[in-house]
Design a protein that fits this description.
four-stranded antiparallel sheet, Aspartate Aminotransferase, domain 2, 41% helix, PyrdxlP-dep_Trfase_major (chains A, B), homodimer, 13 helices, pyridoxal phosphate binding (chains A, B), alpha/beta, 397 residues, AspAT/PAT-like (chains A, B), seven-stranded mixed sheet, Aspartate Aminotransferase, domain 1
Chain lengths: 397, 397
């Protein structure tokens, strides 16, 4: 097989999780997944479709009604300079599949790709699979464990030789959320260098601003993190990736989407044909139901996750030796513990000796070494506090 | 975007189908899909899983019980030299996804890949996406429209410079089915040249030998086309692709699998993570139900499809100017009509003027030019005869 594929690192999260395999006493916060089941109306829509016999191929780009609903949602959330029509939307077999399609459309072997890190490892692995040279530009941890972008360093790294810039914000694992000013500077720069931006915005709805809009207001129903779609022109070199997994509690359904310039869409359709051909129709029906429920369901989820975040971060900040910031976005606390530089060894010890399942920061690249990721998406904030108790025990030893 | 992707041909089947869009009077036989809905027990298994709340991530390689059931089925059908265990099985998000994973594992930009054609266009497109040089070796049409392999030409084309040989048998679109002797010669040759064989065997259960075993017998329950798995050692450079789509009437579910040497499997798991992460658990439960029903359901489907094949081929052979063979495998009649060299123009005219939807042979490469593909998987053989009537009308003009 290819040496390049053999050398790709396996998931260190999986490595830690395997150490806890078969143990029912582990409190697991390692995966990027809520412990809530997909809501009933969403599941019902899939069941109705299956019972009606919708078991045939879908168009490559997705059901026209789902593409229309996604376009309407994006235009409602973002008020882009020009409304985004269904012709710019592709339905994909997961967000990660949408990201892979974007790389296949843009990246030749030998091309240079810049990735903002630490980040979900898939984002750097995909261009590597296509033979690209991947340059990593790191976010920087500052006071209180807050990570931020060195914009000048990133602008210096992106040159006319850079084919694609990959940015994930709100960021997994750090919670870093890109500001409007940063987006504007990057977009203007990439217009000059001719670089494509692939923006992984799957956490856009999991956003917790300091002054949230009043519950039940129209602003609350539209709350999301700044997006490149707010400012980009229809023909900018920009592909934005969305997923149903996080905002709609649908990780197991493998449904995502992307928005690209219209001229790209016939080619995206071909790539979908050659990768997975289409998403199941009944899964797309579930996606339609999720979008229909979104105006109530997403603000309710945001409130629950904000409570989870505050419960966890307050408790962690009260521990000695722990440094952790209150993230503005996504669903992770990213923490470090004084005197614990080896995150994989620490994570394995926490599982083995204390039944606490966290993801090692090194899973997100060497830039995350010394840190731990804790997913706070949970039905029961009490579960998070039980986890903090176990960490406190571990630190006391 | 990449010029290579822009230049990939779009589906000519889709092009013809688009010409019939919105017309309810078209008899469509253009897609590789039965018109039968997935059987109730399979759909029920998915519904039960969704209702039970199985909406979370699955392991990358699939549910252990599905991997075990697939391994048991393969070992039962093929009696390989060494039984195939679950550790060699990966569950994938469709057969086409399994094929793409195999290419990503094996093919660098610049590598040489040999493909036996005419064939389903995805097989040649996938290595091209990865930057490979694709060499096409054509099956040859002979007397009565029977296509066969020029084994010497294929052996001459596969050299130590050939990284991968891709073979789809039973073949879409020609119905060509590989003989045991051809498999043995190819496997021995590829062992010498160090070439990987990627065998697309998704039609192995759609096989119609001249002397079928008696209905209800154990042989009937195990009937399938010759497979490389019958003869290959566990560590041979061989990846075999399967799909639930064709033998279990599950096209819309996007569920497939692959069997590879055990040493490859950790790397296949990584590639699944980076491409789609996993297949939905409830789709995998449907796959388990399909395997449980297979000993009765597959022979019954084989009988129905044999009747469809004979109904269609008998009627076509009775038409003047039509040349068509009775295929041993898959679910297509591949025909040509005297005086009609342009298959795309003919297919468009048949849709527009006669409401008959067939796939142009040129969709499967230049080697298929002048031919038409007719999918005979239908609940109602009468529907096939109604289609033949339309063709007869067209030929009479």
């Amino acid at each position: 097989m290819r040496a390049l594929i053999a050398d790709l690192p396996a998931s260190r999260i999986r490595e830690v999780a395997d150490a806890g395999l078969g143990r029912s006493d582990v409190l697991a916060f390692w995966f990027g997944e809520s412990d809530e089941i997909t809501p009933v109306p969403v599941r019902d829509a899939a069941v109705t479709s299956i019972e009606a016999g919708e078991t045939f191929y879908s168009p490559n780009l997705g059901l026209p009604e789902l593409r229309a609903a996604l376009a309407a949602q994006v235009s409602r959330l973002h008020a882009p300079p020009v409304p985004i029509g269904p012709e710019r939307v592709a339905v994909t077999s997961s967000g990660v599949s949408a990201l892979m399609l974007a790389q296949q459309a843009l990246v030749e072997a030998g091309d240079e790709v810049v990735v903002v890190v630490p980040v979900w490892p898939n984002l750097a692995a995909q261009p590597a699979i296509l033979g690209a040279r991947v340059r990593r530009v790191s976010l920087q941890p500052g006071a209180g464990g807050v990570w931020s972008l060195d914009l000048d360093a990133l602008l210096a790294a992106v040159t006319p030789a850079t084919r694609v810039l990959i940015v994930n914000a709100p960021n997994n694992p750090t919670g870093w959320t890109m500001s409007r000013a940063e987006q504007q500077a990057l977009l203007a720069h990439c217009r000059r260098t001719g670089t494509w931006i692939v923006a992984d915005e799957v956490y856009e709805r999991l956003h917790y601003p300091q002054d949230p809009p009043p519950a039940g207001s129209g602003e609350a129903a539209r709350l999301c993190a700044p997006s490149f779609l707010d400012i980009a022109a229809p023909d900018d070199r920009l592909i934005v990736i969305h997923s149903f997994s996080k905002s709609f509690l649908m990780t197991g359904w493998r449904l995502g989407s992307l928005i690209a310039p219209e001229a790209l869409m016939p080619h995206i359709a071909k790539l979908i044909e050659f990768n997975t051909s289409c998403a199941p129709v009944f899964v797309q029906r579930a996606g339609l139901a999720a979008l229909a429920a979104a105006p109530e369901a997403v603000p309710a989820l945001q409130s629950r996750l904000r409570l989870c975040r505050d419960t966890l971060v307050d408790a962690l900040q009260a521990l000695p030796r722990v440094e952790v910031a209150r993230p503005d976005g996504a669903m992770y606390a990213f923490l470090r513990i004084e005197g614990e530089p080896d995150s994989l060894a620490l994570a394995r010890r926490l599982v083995a000796e204390h039944g606490l399942g966290l993801a090692p920061g090194s899973a997100f690249g060497p830039e995350g070494e010394g840190w731990l990721r804790w997913c706070f998406a949970s039905r029961q904030p009490q579960r998070l506090l039980a986890g903090v108790d176990r960490l406190a025990q571990a630190l006391a030893l």
